Amino acid sequence: MKIADGWTDYKILATGDGYKLERWGDVTLLRPDPQVIWHGSIDMEGYPGLHAKYIRSETGGGEWQYLRKMPAEWNVSYGDLKFKIKPMGFKHTGLFPEQAANWNVMSALIKNAGRPISVLNLFAYTGGATVACLAAGASVCHVDAAKGMVERAGENVRLSGLGDRPVRFIVDDCVKFVKREIRRGRKYDAIIMDPPSYGRGPNGETWKIENELFDFVCLCTQVLSDDPLFFLINSYTTGLQPAVLNNILTLALKGIKGRVEAYEVGLPTEEGIALPCGAGGIFINDGQ
């Protein structure tokens, strides 16, 4: 497991009974987490200073219950990287802090490449990976079907002082965009994707990960440069094990020089355990 243990502005204070108690800067939130199937050791709902709790609905979705005055949005930092946090629909906050484990890997690869690196970030959400790659010195093309998320990514880039770096923000269906890039002959040295389990594009395009992912990864190999640096897949889909990502990357990138790693990603908690937060798989061409 790769554990994102470098945070100072984020911490999991406790877990139990389907919830995790988190500190985001000066704000404490209680959010559902399906991986937490054990009982808690403290009364998280009675935690002093708890600002808000996300309440699940029996019919799907849910809503935030605010317990004390708190900002509508605020900033957190990961080293020199800065991100805007805001309680949003379906329990999200606009950032997945466990992805810092992948940011560290990608940043090191970019910095040590010894050449300019162009990155294609697909299903790119609010741009955590985009900010990390820009800060490491890469150029980035950021693609997501949700206009609001792309706008938030632009805010995070500027908030981190990277507004002058080479970045393109594209609101589009990722599959259609990659097909156009193939026709245009555009190439990238690295690809990142964080595909949803299920989704719809801006024109009603449907995405179902178990049916689409392998073919899409194969399609994306057509926009890789002749000497690609890395290809990273993140997944939060229950049942999609790291070994599956390993197999997809190994088969799709067969014949391209490099190696594949696959792993769980997680976060440390103050209880002394690591909370699993999804899976990652990465193809790396680092000369090893």
Quick description:
This protein has 288 residues and is an alpha/beta fold. Helix content is 24%, strand content 33%.
Topology:
Elements: E1 2-3, E2 10-16, E3 19-24, E4 27-32, E5 52-56, E6 62-66, E7 74-78, E8 81-85, H1 100-112, E9 118-122, H2 128-136, E10 139-144, H3 147-159, E11 167-171, H4 174-184, E12 190-193, E13 198-200, E14 206-208, H5 209-220, E15 230-235, H6 242-252, E16 259-268, E17 274-284
Parallel strand pairs: 1-16, 4-5, 9-10, 9-12, 10-11, 12-15
Antiparallel strand pairs: 2-3, 3-4, 5-6, 7-8, 13-14, 15-17, 16-17
Can you give a write-up of this model?
The protein is an alpha/beta fold and 288 residues long. It contains 6 helices and 17 strands. The strands form 4 sheets. An 8-stranded mixed β-sheet has the order 1-16-17-15-12-9-10-11, sandwiched between helices. A 5-stranded mixed β-sheet has the order 2-3-4-5-6, with no helix packed on it. It has a two-stranded antiparallel sheet with strand order 7-8. The protein starts with a strand and ends with a strand.
